[in-house]
Amino acid sequence: MANILVIDDNPTNRDTYSDILEGEGHTVLSASSGEEGLAKLTAAAVDCVLCDLKLPGLDGLETMELAHEKHGRTPWILITGHGSEEIAVRSIKQGAFNYLTKPVDLQRLKATMESAAQTAGLSRENKALRRELGYDEALDRIVGTSPATKAMKATIRQVAHSHASVLIEGESGTGKELVADAIHTLSGRSARPYVKLNTAAIPRDLLESELFGHERGAFTGAVAQKKGKFEVADTGTLFLDEIGEMSMDAQVKLLRVLQDGHFSRVGGNVDIAGDVRLICATNRNLKQEVLDGNFRMDLYYRLNVVNIHVPSLRERREDIPLLAKNFVDRLNQRHGGNKVLNEESMEVLRRMDWPGNIRELENTVEKLYVLSEGASISASILRQERSFAHTRLHDEFAAAPQPSPAGNTANQEDAIASLVGLPMDEVERRMIIATLDHCQGNKSKAARLLRIGLKTLYRKLEAYQHDTTSSATAP
Prior knowledge:
By secondary structure, the chain is of the alpha/beta class. 52% of the residues lie in helices and 13% in strands. The protein contains 22 helices and 16 strands. The strands form five sheets. Strands 2-1-3-4-5 form a five-stranded parallel β-sheet, with helices on both faces. The chain has a five-stranded parallel β-sheet with strand order 7-10-13-6-14. The N and C termini lie far apart (76 Å).
């Protein structure tokens, strides 16, 4: 049971909340203002705080911020009036554990405070263990010292302790799952279940069963009762990857769980309460998907309480040598070798565009490691690799005539004239690469400008890389 501080200037509300929480076995302290609440925090050991947002003098947010500065990250639950959800969401971003809206549902109050109390207890238990293992061990797996990487790690530290949903956005291969792992490991739920599900890998007609479970006989093949991921992850963290691929029907069902905190198995009618911290990841621009009508706006805002952008390698080129060295070190440990990437190789790797990001870099380094005969992995091997084709394409089109700004008719005519007599495939290739260059490597934006699908763009770039490599290695 926990020591809970209730801060509310309304005596009726204070008494009601205190009675409910004491009935659950908690010890309750109360205060009528933010100033009095801060004094109580100084005088007594408090596990979590229930605080009204609107208070005389210091408001709830100001009180929470001062408390965090003086007393550390005790879980705070803020109570806000109906229609003030935007302020409540802002409070989550500033460090609140959760929020409740008026009129307060007493069952939800009990569940939320119980979750906060458990988090506080687990946090205490984990402190000694974290000191032994090193608090930053989870963050150390995210290799890099660039400003973009440091900023991302700082955000992870800031949001890890919260109960808030997190949306991780970034291109394929950037390491979004490592970010989710770090958030769970650094949270108060680290000793509780951590469940992962790639929603794109599950057939649409089976996704609901995977998420919420099913009863025996619920559908053909359901020969036994099965718990879903939400049930398995209870009191812990659920990581849903590729959330942007989820169908509209599945989005509706997920939204209901996030709104009500309850779900039922497929084929069942028993409500199951779930205490799950949800982390989602996507390589899509979900905001654009909402505008295009492919993703529900209400679900987007539920998932996007805290947003973490995982930078592409183009945004963190300073980290490429460190990442490459890390991959070589792992390979040396695995194979008992002592190979190194020389400075020239590091520079070539740093200049490459890496559309597949860290995953492509790791794959390329492993291929180079296997192909190199001596202790030094040289740039000559790199130039024979397929991954080098993208850099060659970029250099080729940087030097080629590019479309001129609108209004410069003479230059436009020259650009068009340079295409006369070329095969249509070559014209298309130049247009795609020029558009990609114009969009600074942003493939989603380039695909929209070209009015083609993102998968089509990737397929064409793959073909161009193959053609360039074939011509470069032909006798």
